Amino acid sequence: MSAQNYPHVFEPLTVGNKTIKNRVLMGSMHTGLEDRAKNYPKLAEYFRQRAAGEAGIMVTGGIAPNISGWVGPFSGFLKYGFQVKRHRLITEAVHQEGSLICMQILHSGRYGYHPFNVSATDKQSPITPFKPKKLSERKIHKQIRDFVNCAKLAQKANYDGVEIMGSEGYLINQFISPRTNDRDDDWGGSFDNRTRFALEIVRQTRAAVGQDFILIFRLSMLELVNNGSSIDEVIKLAKALEQAGVSIINTGIGWHEARVPTIATMVPRAGFAWVTELIKKEVKVPLVTTNRINHPQVAEDIIASGKADMVSMARPFLADPDLVKKSRSGDVRDINICIGCNQACLDHVFKNKMASCLVNPAACHETEFISQPVKTSKNIAVVGAGMAGLSCSTTLAERGHQVTLFEAAAQIGGQFNLAAAIPGKEEFVHTISYFTHLLDKHGVKLKLNHKATEADLSDFDEVVIASGVTPRVPGIEGIDHDKVILYHDLLSGRKKAGKKVAVIGAGGIGFDVSEYLSVDDPSKAQTIDEFCAEWGIDQSIESPGGLIKAHDDPAARDIYMLQRKTSKPGKGLGKTTGWIHRLSLKKKGVKTLTGVQYDKIDDRGLHITVKEKPQILDVDHVIICAGQVSNKALYQDRDNYHIIGGADLAAELDAKRAIKQGTLLGQKL
After folding, report:
1. % residues pLDDT > 90 (the chain)
2. Where is each NADH:flavin oxidoreductase/NADH oxidase N-terminal domain found (predicted)?
3. In this structure, which topology does domain 484-519+555-626 adopt according to CATH?
4. Which residue of 177, 346, 389, 437 has the fewest C-beta atoms within 10 A of its own C-beta?
């Protein structure tokens, strides 16, 4: 594999007096490092590694132009000259590696999670508890001046440009969209008035920074909310932005309050490139398309087909900082593919935690995760080829240890294979393929279909127990009935479910199993057209906001999802994806019951009691998703024995913790 395989991706692009060496933009991601001055050396190393990985141009996480623009209390902002110094750490690191970087200016508007937020009107966001103050005309002009000042300070910090965040429902978008702007003065009402704020920011910024400073404008092309912008308005604004002096237009998809998935793994690859294509023929400035682009071939196909001039990859650079470099000169199998899970990136950020990556725990922690070659090579056994065992084995072998990996099954991957069987999680197989490649690359001796014994482990210097979990079997009368199927037997294909099914357990596994049961063919991935139909996306964007009536397909089976707790089903699901799973199953007609007491299972079905009322669910099968227990039979309390992953702690299946724990132990031994 080489750049010859992706000629369009590796074609340089000249913008002003600067040349971007390829067509890959590393999109903006809030990491949490931006918010504290003490963390800027870490942030500089984070960007340095991705610049060394040959990202053509990068955009920082959002930096507010003032305090009212904060995303949350004390988040990153740039308003004063003394703040420039910390940003120069970033630009110097990036420029030393030969890449370009722009700072994103983001004013959160009514999305600000603090009492100082402001907006075009005083309409409160449905996802934040603070009502914004309506900006007066005088304060609108002050906000514009603060945007310009922020851009000038970014230029002083030696950024190559700025990205002005005009999408995703933030302040500028709040002025643009009729959904949030019903002002009756010169800044609202008509299209020209609603777009005046955005255009004044661009015009005044261009005048202040000169012609050679890159100005990217992130334009909300598909808002996915009611009473939003139509395609005609988007095109008209794109043309006006071009005339106002933007260098590049980046695609923005959806608002944070939208009830349509936009970046989760169940969104088809390049699922919104068609949006950028609608605008591309209307303007001459380079256009960037975005969302769910995680592989060089996907990027190549988009650019070669003329849908966009560049592609934005954000989370893929968390998963693998060397993504572009490997695409150009190495084996694509060597790329650690982003699987779009959101579990360590967006979920962390929305919980006010430092971002990272499930498949690459070193992301945003580059100064803490350091692998050094070993001085003395040891002979190490790892038991279990799930995520913990794989990450530990490959890290140990890469450092120079001799590693033997025992796996009782016929394939590696453990419970991750079950996750990959879930509709919308097909890309999880990439992580298994990646580790398969690393095992071979680093010379790990793999023993499949080999259940390790104490005798097998007796001669090793170190032993790592990563033997995972087994499904927990609850003590329900009739649990051994023929109607009962454990979740791992279902998802592995060893057993099939009938047309009427009860799922015991409404945690992550219960939801996954219900998704699996809700379709006729779980292995068939959705097309972009099917996805848009299911979620009511107007592919002409003629309707305001781009929404039409969703096409609800009933589940392929009658499904009951049950839990003992009285709390909302799926309460512990990911913060940024849980709502998708709940809404998806609701749309398919899956019935949920809480506060359930399980009485017995017999030929008549599942006997339960809900609110002191007994009832019988006439089902063909009962799927048990009642958690797991650790499989630690081989573990010994000795200095040379170590236990990680599910064998150490059997909570909800937690690949994020398993990979991190395996990596850290691999770096330590």
Report:
1. 91
2. 9-329
3. FAD/NAD(P)-binding domain (3.50.50)
4. 437
